Amino acid sequence: MELSQHIKNHRTRLGMSQEQLAEAIFVSRQTISNWETDRTYPDVQSLLLLSNLFEVSVDSLIKGDVEEMKSVITEEAKRLNKLGVVMVVCGAGSAIWAVATTLLDLSLPVILVPTVALFIPAAIAAGMAEKIKHDNQLFTYKAIEAFMQGADPDVLREENQKAGRAWWGKLVAETAVAIVLGFCCGWGLLSIIQKLVG
């Protein structure tokens, strides 16, 4: 990508070290190093800060990289879709197995081992999907939907930015609620089925 070279050239032109540039746009020195070596790509907010600091347009910074960025976004959207399929298939399979084996009055290990084995990939896929959404600053349904359709997710919208500030708290709360609800629903469902069968 050309952006890495543009960042390095502008930084050198201003006589700044990687650390000084990092401090100026509120990122780590390692982040600057990663950008300049094409290991990672700046998010939209960082691109705006860089363009202001370098006194150039965002377009001139990313010139030549737009098609590659579209390709990366398309691949990320496809990956998000695949992770969604894994979550649904494994999550549903886990629930169906638990109900079916309980109805057949099988032993607890026969019920739990495959149920947990199917639940783990669903949980990992959910975590990976959350990481993609976080890395691309997709915090609202509108932003996610636009991203999945290859449109501009407009991550700088106030609604999306506000949701982003509460992302960690929301993620922890959702995870805790999901664990509690999953345990309660699973326990209740097993109890009901055992009463019906027994």
TrEMBL record:
CDD domains: HTH_XRE. The keyword Membrane applies. Residues 7-61 form the HTH cro/C1-type domain. The chain crosses the membrane at residues 80-100, 106-129, 171-193. Keywords: DNA-binding, Membrane, Transmembrane, Transmembrane helix. It comes from the Bacteria. InterPro entries: Cro/C1-type_HTH, Lambda_DNA-bd_dom_sf. The keyword Transmembrane helix applies. SMART domains: HTH_XRE. GO terms for molecular function: DNA binding. This is Transcriptional regulator.
